[in-house]
Amino acid sequence: MESEITSMGACEIAAAIRGGALSSREVVAAHLDRIDQINPVVNAIVTMDHEGALAAADAADRALSDGADIGPLHGVPVAYKDTHATAGMRTTSGSLLFADRIPDHDDETVRRIGAAGAIRVGKTNVPEMAAGSHTFNSVFGTTYNPFAQTKSAGGSSGGAAAALAARMIPLADGSDMGGSLRNPASFCNVVGLRPTPGVVPDPVGGLGFSPLGVRGPMGRSVDDVAVLLSVMSGGHRHDPLSVDRRSVDSDQAVEILGGLRVAWAPTLGGRIPVDPDVIKVLDPFVSALEGWHVGIEFDCPDLDLAEGAFRTLRAAEFDLELGALLDDHPEAFKADLAWNIRCGRELSARDVTAALRDLTTLHRIAADFFSDYDVLLAPVSQVVPFDADLTYPRTVDGVPQETYLDWMRASYLLTPLGIPAMSLPAGFTDDGLPVGIQILTAAHTERRLLSIARALEAISPAAGVAPNMTA
């Protein structure tokens, strides 16, 4: 029964609890047992509260039996990214500087998910300060890929993706600046959605007008991600970019493949090298759409300004947020992150304002592009999951990667467009490693993106496939 419960999706679990087929206690206990068995192999969940989770499950069962109003995630286990504040539970950001930090409050994302009835079981691992798309740090160590336990799970939401894939939790939250919801989802054969900036509010972020970093949902199916997004989204008076409306309704499923205008950009218009193993999986996936009367064109938005805009604004933000800590504790920072912070110090005010001007241009380019196309398809990652003992891949298809950012261009060059982007499972390499496809639509069209993704999920050979794992 335990394996049956942990293989269920979040929507299925929530329905079973509402209908009385399962209790929240049974669900949470099954997932806690699964974590105890499997987590030592992958190191995805780094802080746990068994007693608190079971007590919350019992309270959820009492509330249901008493006829209380319940939320859409009532009794569903969830683990939160270790960068997101959780009251009474350690939140380290993967840094030795915060190894003992215990917040006295939940951040807004955590509060909303909890208010929808979800039950906190723990925190998911991240790279140091969530910087980079490979999850390792000096507090908890490395998170490993459930499909190949010598490989990377991606990052920065790598612990979340690995925990989902390993069936330790059915839902997780994450965040994304340069691919942190998308890359780990691709590496671990789950679904990760980077929403349009402002859809999920961050009312305590120090840079409320920055559109680079966003919060978003992760799950094992599009429907589960849709429900979690509906819970997380909505305006907040302390977030100047937030939109005061729900951006997604989980019941808005539409089969709309036929007649879609699709742009396919396997190398982002020749801007990035891509591992042939990635293309070998994605090409037939995209070609199969022609049988559904989908119009496919090789095309890509003009991304010539994206590299400079992203790197400049990222470095400026890192210096502002972390520069003083680096000055005081240089020994506590990994070399790649310290380099990225110092890049921000070399920028002038003109560099930053020019990057903001280019960001404006890129938003307009995206708006024009999606007047011609319904959806853009692209690789999520330029590589398949790589050896976990590397800090980052040193080459992609024979092309040297000089910094820890270079190999992430498939995701981060699309971040400055200000549009929603999802990683959906697309297939496996000959070695059994997952490969995701990136699905992008116009800004503030999350409903449309989710509808398209549901239709693509229905024909994906990898959707819902679990790793073959034993403790």
Task: Indicate the overall shape.
Answer: globular
> How many angstroms separate the termini?
17 Å
Radius of gyration: 21 Å
The low-confidence parts are 249-254
Average pLDDT, rounded to a whole number, is 96
Approximate helicity band: 25-40%
Helical/strand content category: alpha+beta
- What does the main sheet amount to? 11 strands, mixed
What fraction of the residues are assigned to beta strands by DSSP? 15-25%
Question: Strand sequence of the main sheet, in spatial order?
Answer: 1-3-2-8-10-9-16-17-13-11-12
- Count the DSSP helices: 14
Task: Tell me how many strands there are.
Answer: 17
Characterise the protein shown here.
It is a single chain. With 471 residues, the protein is of the alpha+beta class. Helix content is 37%, strand content 16%. The strands form 4 sheets. The chain has an 11-stranded mixed sheet with strand order 1-3-2-8-10-9-16-17-13-11-12, sandwiched between helices. A hairpin with a 5-residue loop joins strand 16 and strand 17. The protein starts with a helix and ends in a 12-residue tail after the last helix.
Q: What's a quick, concise take on this entry?
A:
The protein has 471 residues and is α+β, with helices and mostly antiparallel strands.
Task: Give structural attributes.
single chain, 14 helices, 11-stranded mixed beta sheet, two-stranded antiparallel sheet, alpha+beta
